[in-house]
Amino acid sequence: MRNFIVKCMLLILVLYAGILIGMEKSSDEKKQSSYEIYSLQSPSHINENDAKEIEATLMKNNRELIDEEEKLQVNKDKVSYLSEAGKILASVVTGVVNKVIDVLTNLI
């Protein structure tokens, strides 16, 4: 019994050490790759043209926002169709299960 407990504790210790090493390696890779992959952009931009007019944009320009809104609307329509299909499927399954339960209760 003592040998079993010692083996289990040793196995748990090895697995725990592996988890800690993996977390450390993942953290190091995340720190290195985040600067290379993602370019940090300022949320606001201020531009000055030749006529000394200053134009400021916050977050994104209007056209990008409109494009994103159109994409979201298309996705919303797709989700709506899936939601309706799910509701119909749920009502069919509920009806079938209720009929099966009624039949089984009548047999008993």
UniProtKB/TrEMBL annotation:
Pfam family, one: DUF3679
InterPro entries: Uncharacterised_YqxA (IPR020534)
Protein name per the record: Uncharacterized protein
Record lineage: Bacteria, Bacillati, Bacillota, Bacilli, Bacillales
